[in-house]
Design brief:
Largest sheet: 2 strands, antiparallel
Strand order of the largest sheet: 1-2
Strand content: 5-15%
Structural class: mainly alpha
Number of helices: 6
Shape: extended
Number of strands: 2
Helix content: 25-40%
Length: 144
């Protein structure tokens, strides 16, 4: 399991073990995406990522026209039955928030991702798809 300390100190801790048995192209892609902004693949645009040797043979123009090789069965839009179950008691007892507070390098949550949820703001055509909510305290609209 990766700790918050490892993520924060990625320049010193990020390595791909030999037993992962990854191709050189795969290892290079991972390391070129998980690096500082000055070396990061894609800093000059998405075409830089698309032209990486890992993606040789992929036609990005027609990619979305193909059916996915596996489509998991879903009963409803928020169905999580395809994920392994998580025992809530193990989460409470794990080295999560409470033990992180005791770590000497804890930064007060500045780099923590507790309860983070990704929400896609733009659809595939680049059109904003936000959900408008109302904030009663400031009497303004919030887009989530």
């Amino acid at each position: 399991m990766v700790s918050v300390k490892q993520v924060i100190n990625w320049p010193k801790t990020l390595s791909i073990p030999l037993e992962a048995n990854l191709s050189p192209e795969t290892s290079n892609l991972i390391l070129r995406l998980c690096c500082g902004p000055e070396e990061r693949l894609g800093k000059n645009g998405s075409s830089e990522v698309k032209s990486h040797p890992f993606f040789t043979g992929i036609n990005f123009e027609t990619l979305r026209q193909h059916e996915a090789p596996y489509i998991p069965p879903l009963r409803h839009p928020t169905d999580t039955s395809n994920f392994d179950p998580v025992d809530p008691d193990k989460l409470r007892r794990s080295s999560s928030r409470d033990s992180l507070l005791k770590e000497e390098s804890y930064d007060g949550g500045k780099h923590a991702f507790f309860e983070f949820t990704f929400r896609r703001f733009f659809d595939d055509e680049g059109i904003a798809q936000a959900t408008k909510m109302h904030d009663p305290e400031s009497d303004t609209a919030i887009f989530v």
